[in-house]
Amino acid sequence: MGITRRQLLGGAALGAGGAIVGAGAGVAGVNAATPAPPGPTGGDTEPFYGTHQSGIATPVQAHAAFTAFDLDADADRASVARLMRLLSDDAARLMRGEPALADLDEELAHAPSRLTITFGFGPRLFDVIGRADKRPSSCAPLPDFSIDALQERWSGGDLLIQICGDDRVSVAHARRMLWKDTESFATQRWLQQGFLDARGTHEPGTTPRNLMGQVDGTVNPRTPEEFDEVVWSGGPPDWFVGGTMLAIRRIAMDLDTWDAVSRADRENTIGRRLTDGAPLTGDAEFDAPDLAAEGPDGAPVISDFAHIRRAATGGGAPFLRRGYNYDLGQDASGRTDAGHIFTAYAADLDTQFVPVQQTLADLDLLNLWTTPIGSSVFALPPGAPEGGWVGEGLLG
Ligand code: HEM
Predict the structure, then answer these.
(1) Which pLDDT tens digit goes with each residue over 226-253?
(2) 368 — pLDDT class (breaks 50, 70, 90)
(3) How far is CA 394 from CA 75, 135, 184, in A?
(4) Per-residue pLDDT at 26 exceeds 60
(5) Would you call 216 a catalytic residue per the annotation?
(6) Candidates 248, 307, 319: which one to mutate for ligand 1, based on the most atoms within 8 Å of Cβ?
(7) Best exposed site among 107, 113, 338, 367 by fewest CB in 10 Å?
(8) Catalytic residue among 44, 148, 167, 216
C-alpha cells in the first residue's frame, strides 16, 4: 500500500483545477461535482459492464438508495445465481436508459441521469451458498466500537443493492424494479436514502458538503493508479480480483447541539476551515495539513483531538469515502433526525478501515456530535464482462 495522504491530496488538486475531472474514464472526478452540460442531462449514462462495478469510482451522483436484503430460508447457490443473473440483466438495461424486463412504467426508465447499480454480498451469503472458503477475509461484521449505538434496523444484510443517480425519480424507479426481482428470493432488511448537492449547483471539481456544513471528501483516491492501490482487491480469493469491500455506517449527527457551537470550535473539531475546507495551517482545500505547526501559545494549530489529525494518524491506510447525507426531519421528541450515510470502500477493511475507526472511537472531537447507529459490511464483486453477470466468478 504505497499511496500516502499527500498523494491523495495531490490527485485532488488536479481535480480541483478541472484538468482531469469528467475525463470520461469515470474515475477522475469522484466525490466532486460533475459538469452539467447545457440542456437536459437525463440521457447521460454510466457503463454497467466493465472490469469494476460502476458506482464506486464513478463521480459522485446527487442521490443514493442503499437497500440491504435478507436471503430467504430456502436460498442456496443456485437460487442466488438465478437472482444475480436477473438483477444484472435489469441493472444493465436500466443504466442504459431502457426499461427493465417486466417494466410496466417504461417511461420512467428513459432518463437514467448517470444511474449506477452496484451489488454487494454480506458475510452470511457465503455460508448460504456453501462457499465460506471463498469469503474475502474482511467480509465480517466490524468489531464493536465504544462509540457505537447500533440499531438492528440499520445494520447487517446478506445482499446490498446500491443505486446512485442524479435524478431522484430514476433512482426510485430502479429501486422498485430491482426489488421486484428480489421478491421471491429475499426480503428488504433496510433502506437508506441519501443526497448530495444537485448536479450543476457548483463548479465542476467542487467537493460536496455534509449537513454539519463541512467540505467532506477532500482526501480521497482519484486517479486509476490510486484506485488500484487503495480500492480494488488483487485477491485472494481469486473471484474477488477487481472487487472491493464496503463498510456502511449510518452516523447520526446531533445538529441541535452542533447549532450551539461557535465557528472557531467547529473548525477546530475538524482541523479545517468552514469557508473552503482548507486545513487550519493552509490556504486552500488541497494544501497538505501541517500537523507539526504550533500557534503563538505553543499549542498545535490543528488540535490533538481534531478529526483530520486522528483520522490521518490512525494507523490504517487510505480508502475511498463516498458518503451521502440523510435527513428525516424531526423525531417524535422533536430532535433533528439527520446525519451521514458513511461509506468506506477498501481492498481490505481490516487493515485499511478498522484501525482508523478504532482510533476515532478512542478519541475524536467529532464524537461529541456524531453517533454510529448502523453498521454493515459487504463484498462488492468485480464488474461483469458484456453478456456476463455480477458474482458469476463466485456463483457460476
Ligand atoms: C458523520 C461523521 C463524519 C463526519 C461529519 C466527517 C467529516 C470529515 C471531514 C469534514 C473531513 C475533512 C475533509 C476531507 O478530507 O474529507 C474528514 C476527513 C476524514 N475522515 Fe471523516 N467524518 C466522519 C466520519 C468518519 C469516519 C467514521 C471515518 C473512518 C472511520 C472517517 C475518516 C476520515 C478520513 C480518513 C479523513 C481524511 C483525513 C486526512 O487524511 O486528512 N470519517 N471527515
Answers:
(1) 999 999 999 999 999 999 999 999 999 9
(2) very high
(3) 15, 10, 21
(4) no
(5) yes
(6) 307
(7) 107
(8) 216
The model's pTM: 0.94
Q: Using alpha carbons, list the distances in angstroms from residue 89 to 48, 95, 177, 321.
A: 10, 10, 12, 28
Find out whether 114 and 61 touch, Cβ atoms under 8 Å.
yes
Residue 278, phi then psi, degrees to nearest 5:
-70, 145
**What is the grid cell recorded at 134?**
471463498
Instruction: Output the ligand 1 site: residues, CB below 6 A.
Output: 5, 210, 212, 214-219, 249, 251, 253, 270, 272, 277, 307-308, 311-312, 340, 342, 356-357, 360, 366, 370
Supply the residue whose CA is at minimum distance from atom 35 of ligand 1.
311
Out of 1, 216, 231, give the residue to mutate to test ligand 1, the one with the largest number of ligand atoms within 8 Å of its CB. 216
Which is the closest atom of ligand 1 to the Cα of 219? 15
